[in-house]
Amino acid sequence: MSRPALHWVVDLYQQIQRHISPFKVMAQATPTGASHGSSPPKLTGRAFYESIGSPKYIVAPMVERSEFAWRLLTRSYLDEERSKSFLAYSPMLHARLFGETARFRDEHFQPTRDSLVSKEKSLSSPWLDGNPNLDRPLFVQFCANKPEDLLEAAQYVAPYCDAVDLNLGCPQGIARNGHYGAFLQEDWDTIYNMINKLHKELKVPVTAKMRILDTREKTLEYAKMILSAGASILTVHGRRREQKGHNTGIADWQMIRYLREQLPPETVIFANGNILNSGDLESCLAATGADGVMSAEGNLSDPTIFANPPREHNPREYWYGAEGKGGYRMDAVFRRYLDIIHRYVFDREPPMRTPLYVPGDPEEVPQIMEASGDVAHEEVRPRKRQKRFSKQQLDPNIRSIQAHLFQLLRPLVSRHTDIRDALATTRCGDINGFERVLTMVEAAVKNGLDDHAASPNVESKLITEDGVDEESELEVTPRQTTTLKYQRPWWVCQPYIRPLPDEAIKLGAMQPRKWNASKVDSREAAGNNGDAGRRLDVFETQDQSLYHVAKEELPKPTLVFG
User: Fold this and answer.
1) DSSP string spanning 421-466?
2) By C-alpha distance, which of 314, 427, 435 is closest to 304?
3) Do residues 203 and 162 touch, judged by C-beta distance below 8 A?
4) Is the distance from CB of 342 to CB of 336 less than 8 angstroms?
5) Which segments constitute the DUS-like FMN-binding domain (predicted)?
6) Is the pLDDT reported for residue 14 higher than 70?
């Protein structure tokens, strides 16, 4: 039976199920989470956390970004020790839409090759999402505002994940319009009822991700309510709801530390915010006392953020800079990412590739590796009208490739506009187009490495986008100070440094609100330009300011929530 026909049958079946579901509830003798026969009891809280390996390093839930292929790319860089202490979240999914149709589920969650039509675990072989050999532990995150919708959606994914997470942190306008995410934080009854329903009726634990409120006392009360409803793990993003875009600012680690000290010691807490590179992971854990540290946009800029340098010297994968300022090469990460797409999404071996270049290798002209089969598209430029989408274009792992590459290659494409343009015009699903971009990236990195080998002192003296270098006698902004600390050569994975709100106002990128404009003026009158010692952060969300180049140069990015 074809998938469209199967979807029609499933939708009809679900309508019938809605009519008879009240009778099913009356007939149940035990709650869903109870032990049946040999089924183990549902663990919660710290016992559950320890059962999945007590993970310390966590990939955040991000819409259209933390999909299977990206999670696997991140996992692939971890050594055996760190792999045991790693957890990933799915992208945030809309609970009502996920529960309503099999088509929506199949376009966002692929535990097997079959359509996701049953709440019972499929007898088919595992495929992508939640594959026990590739993608566990895994938490699946939903946004919702009705307990019934959340439970309905959660029951479909429960057989393939370790926990279901409720999004209480999305600060975007779409969350305000839909009344979910951070815009539920005044509606405590709704939050409590959703978490409590999953706690009582779902076979796997429920967790939650929240933002801090205006005061310590209110934030603590809010966290206690979430935990009392049955949340087994609490992720705390140390920013308030209004901190987004140019107003992102710095996450408050001290607020997370306050929660750690005030909540019972058995409470499991993940800290989120202010993670720019791998050096910040342990700093965050020490400052907050949290059990784990979560990264979102830091992971998007550098999927190796949780990894240690290679155990053996490997300059084809890793750039060894002075004073420990090394990092994984963009061309190597890009190549590994496409190999994962080939092997796991397209079900075939990647193209044969020559070793990546290091100075001293014989000169070779990079060969464009082309894919074969139905997924290879001849056209590069999109048609003006495209009403139908292929199966590959609807795949969550395919939809996100271009946006991932813009984030990963940001320093490189800002310098090499021909690569930027080639990437911008590559169609969704055009794997050969992305292979051509990879070839261009490899050639650019080769030239960069040769230039560095010829004049190592030039590249080792890092300079910010504003022309300030490490030896500058000019007064530098906090953003420039942070950039000099975290910046690497343009061919190395590295974070994007956002300006602080005060800097964004001075640059004209943000207008102060009436209620805080006077505060800005008073600080300037007092000669206080901000604490230069404070570090900047990457907001764990993307918005229109994601690409720090002219608006017409790069396509508008998709919003990322979580």
Assistant:
1) HHHHTPPTT-HHHHHHHHHHHHHHHHHHHHHHHH-HHHHHS-B-TT
2) 314
3) no
4) no
5) 59-308
6) no
Structure tokens at 406: 């813009």
CB of 297 within 8 A of CB of 539? yes
> What pLDDT, on a 0 to 100 scale, did the predictor assign at position 92?
97
Query: Quick check: pTM over 0.85?
Result: no
Tell me how far apart the alpha carbons of residues 156 and 140 are, in angstroms, rounded to a whole number. Answer: 11
Is residue 496 pLDDT above 70, yes or no?
yes
Helix (H) or strand (E) holding 87: strand 86-89
The Cα–Cα gap between 56 and 293 comes to 6
Positive or negative CA dihedral for 165, 167, 169, 172? Answer: positive
The structural domains of the chain, ordered by start, are 45-308 (3.20.20.70), 310-358+395-456+485-510 (no CATH)
Active site residues: 170
Measured in degrees and rounded to the nearest 5, phi and psi for residue 178 equal: -90, -5
For residue 290, which of 302, 308, 274 has the smallest C-alpha distance? Answer: 274
DSSP class of 406: H
Distance CA 323, CA 250 (A): 26
Do residues 64 and 90 touch, judged by C-beta distance below 8 A?
no
Give the confidence band of 549 by pLDDT, cuts at 50, 70, 90. Answer: very low
Residue 545 in this model has a pLDDT that exceeds 90 = no
| Residues 53, 33: Cα–Cα separation, whole Å | 22
- First-last CA distance in the chain: 37
Q: What are phi and psi of 138, to 5 degrees?
A: -140, 130
Q: How far apart are CA 14 and CA 8, in angstroms?
A: 10
CA distance 324 to 553: 33
Is the CB of residue 58 less than 8 Å from the CB of residue 293? yes
The helix/strand/coil state of 319 is strand
- Burial grade of 527 (CB within 10 A; 0-12, 13-18, 19 or more): exposed
Could you tell me what percentage of the chain is helix, strand and coil, using 3-state DSSP and rounding each to the nearest 5?
45, 10, 50
Cis peptide before 137 (omega within 30 of 0): yes
Q: Are strands 318-319 and 327-328 parallel, antiparallel or unpaired?
A: antiparallel
Distance (Å, rounded) from C-alpha 320 to C-alpha 310? 11
How far are the Cα atoms of 356, 364, 453 from residue 360, in angstroms, in the given order? Answer: 12, 12, 10
Provide CB contacts within 8 A for 370, sequence distance 6+. 351, 376, 432, 435
* Preceding omega of 396 cis (within 30 degrees of 0): no
What pLDDT does 328 receive? 99
Q: How open is the CA angle 162-74-304, to the nearest 5 degrees?
A: 140
Cβ–Cβ < 8 Å for 305, 348: no
